[in-house]
Amino acid sequence: MSDFSNSLLIGASGGIGAALGDAIEARGGRVTRLGRTTTPAVDYARPETLAQAAATLADGAPYDALIIASGILHGSDWGPEKSWRALAPGPLEQTFLVNTIGPALALRHFLPLLPRKERCLVAALSARVGSIADNRLGGWYGYRASKAALNQLVRTLAIELARTHPQAVAVALHPGTVDTALSAPFQSNVPEGRLFTPAQSATHLLDVLAGLTPAESGGHFDWAGQPVPA
């Protein structure tokens, strides 16, 4: 089984998610795109949809890649916290639901659809700001914390998969700053040439994934394939 020949993609309606699906198909792969409006639907706010979607798609297994491309940084009436004074339960709950809890439940339900003995890829879109060691600016409490938690989930999963799926690669990926609705309010300070289109980011991420080995499972890598500090 070659990489991306039969892939699952959660968060397929987002800017990067849609581009990842297109890039997989452009490489001759097959991708099942999942989101709140697909059939079957996947909605983190309704956890039962994850179990239902996995059961529906079981006949198509094994899948060689599970890519979780969902993410949230801000809502229509709230943004990333600039200070501890802005911390509030609603935005924190939504941020952790989309960035951490939903992906964790997706792993629970879709991992059984991956092969146990052949190479397979598990990737979750994270962010460099989820790095604890690299945090020098502060702020963005919920987003940073939820992505750091996601990175820990992936690391823990990789340790377990090494025992049961020795050819599996499970990683978190930093896509860079991508021109999407998520980053739109925060693009003014992006250096020239470092604001990627979704298509550029998707190409980078698939290239990185294709080059990783089980020895690198559990890591967090950026769009150029460089490790991001934990």
Describe the structure.
The chain has helices at residues 15-26, 48-57, 89-110, 141-164, 198-211, and strands spanning 7-10, 31-34, 65-68, 120-125, 168-174, 177-178, 195-196, 220-222. It is globular and about 50 Å long. The model has no long low-confidence stretch (mean pLDDT 95). The chain is 36% helix and 14% strand. It has 230 residues and is α/β, with parallel strands linked by helices. It starts with 6 loop residues before the first strand and ends in an 8-residue tail after the last strand.
Cα distance, first to last residue? 31 Å
Largest sheet: 6 strands, parallel
Mean pLDDT: 95
Strand content: 5-15%
Number of helical elements: 5
Q: In one word, what is the shape?
A: globular
Low-confidence stretches: none
Given the helix and strand composition, which structural class is it? alpha/beta
Instruction: Please compute the radius of gyration using only Cα atoms.
Output: 17 Å
Number of extended strands: 8
Strand arrangement across the biggest beta sheet: 2-1-3-4-5-8
Fraction of residues in H or I helices:
25-40%
Order of helices and strands: EHEHEHEHEEEHE
